[in-house]
Amino acid sequence: MRYIWAFILAASVAPITYLFSIPCGFSCAQCPLGGICILAYPLIFLGVIIIKFIRKIKSLISKIA
Amino acid sequence: MNRFEILKKNKWRYISFIIGFLLLVSPFALLIRLEFWITGNLAEPSIHYACLRMPIGWIFRGAVNYLISRPEMTAFIIGVLGLSLFLGPIFCGWLCPVGAVSEAISRIIPLPNKFRIHIKDTNITSALRYGFFAGYITIYILIGLKLSGDWIGSICCRFCASTILQNLAAGIFGWLLPTYGSIEYWGTASIIVLISWLIIGGIFTYGGRGWCLFFCPLGAFSNLLYKVGAKLGFYRITYNKDKCSHCKKCNLVCPMWAIKSDHSVETALCINCKECVNICPTGALTMKWGKENATK
Fold first, then answer.
1. What pLDDT is attached to residue B166?
2. Angle formed by the axes of helices B97-108 and B11-24, to 10°?
3. Which residue from B198, B226, B201, B222 is spatially nearest to B211, judged by alpha carbons?
4. Residue B97's closest CA among B161, B32, B53?
5. Which of B135, B124, B244, B255 is nearest to B202 (CA)?
6. Do residues A59 and A42 both lie within one domain?
7. Domain shared by A63 and A47, yes or no
């Protein structure tokens, strides 16, 4: 059942992405965000990495304490 | 076996990646240039002429005459898919410049593996890969049937990693060819693809083949044909469980997460790169022709 859900989830990604990207695909930086999405993705990933490091640091401190 | 020994053992594969870049990516595009020279096409050759979406769109639109009037595109698709049936997806594993660049970036940037995405269940990876492929084909058909309007076709190029690679190459090597003009498909979607292909798919994915695994329709199609070809007894990877020492070295080097939990190879994901065959210390993984000892 897990595999079927994974398949359905992945199959819906491309059509949904196309629907969402139609307005901005033709006019980059013309939208109210002014192209902020260019920065958003790297920032999200940077955030994930920082959170991972903070968890490590916290566990290290708790071990020492 | 350290990183340099792996590089040495697979040197022909890495050399062929450079050849693949020179064959397909403008301003070089030597293969497409040759095709254009034979067919008398005066257009500027680029990887744009090795497109999967357009021929499928033409078929569903009923414009089959394009398949004849654009022979370079038809020949490329038939060539890649035909090779996949008889020899496995060797285009993906040995020539594709898009996969080569992301794989190279993954190896160059020494990010610890704990920060990298790695799905170990090959069935989940296959379900995600072929699910996305099904969604992609739906879009092709919609474009082909003109249900979504013709203009959506150019949006596909914005989501194409090959186009992004072509634009990057134009920026770096464009000065070599004064008449060369890059394909103008830069935009928000291109940046998202660039991030998904090189950053998420390259740096943050184990093996650096995230784009190939989940988003490349040509790769998924090639692997379906490889699966059929392997069942029919064409050139394929085989696993001998009696020889296997369960050292898991194959698991560590496979860029496509194609090694199953029992250490056999999932042909729906394997790109015949032979990294696992070259690293296997007992010879449990080998390449074979013929019907006997079918791939497990």
1. 84
2. 130
3. B201
4. B161
5. B255
6. yes
7. yes
Q: Residue A29's pLDDT is what?
A: 47
Query: Is residue B156 assigned to a domain?
Result: yes
Do A23 and A42 fall into the same domain? no
DSSP three-state, residue B62: coil
Question: How far apart (Å, rounded) are the C-alpha atoms in residues B259 and B279?
Answer: 13
Of residues B131, B136, B155, nearest to A21 (C-beta): B155
Q: How many domains does chain B have?
A: 1
Residue type, A38: I
pLDDT of residue B294 exceeding 50, the answer is no
- The answer to whether residue A63 scores a pLDDT higher than 50 is yes
Instruction: Specify whether the CB–CB gap between B103 and B198 falls below 8 A.
Output: no
Are residues A23 and A41 located together in one domain of the fold?
no
Number of Cα atoms under 13 Å in the Cβ half of residue B285: 29
Q: Band of the pLDDT at B187, cuts 50, 70, 90?
A: low
Is B18 at the interface with chain A, CB within 8 A?
A: no
Same domain, A44 and A19: no
Q: Which amino acid is at B81?
A: L
Residue B201: inside a domain: yes
Range of the domain at A57: 35-65
End-to-end Cα separation, chain A, in angstroms: 45
Q: Is residue B74 part of a domain?
A: yes
Tens digits of per-residue pLDDT, B193-226?
Answer: 787 888 888 998 999 999 999 888 889 999 999 9
Q: How confident is the model at residue B249 (pLDDT cuts 50, 70, 90)?
A: very high
pLDDT confidence of residue B117: 87
Over range B19-43, report the average pLDDT: 88
Q: Residue B16's domain spans which residues? A: 3-234
Is B189 part of the contact surface with chain A (CB cutoff 8 Å)?
A: yes
Paired with B286 in beta bridges are B238
Q: What is the interface pTM, i.e. ipTM, of the complex?
A: 0.78
B101 closest CA partner among B177, B183, B193: B193
Q: Please count the structural domains in chain A.
A: 2
**Pairing, β B236-239 against β B285-288:** antiparallel
Q: Nearest CB to A3: which of B127, B159, B204?
A: B127
Residue A9 contacts B where some CB pair is shorter than 8 Å:
yes
SS3 label, residue B286: strand
Examine residue B288 and state whether it is found in any structural domain, yes or no.
Answer: no
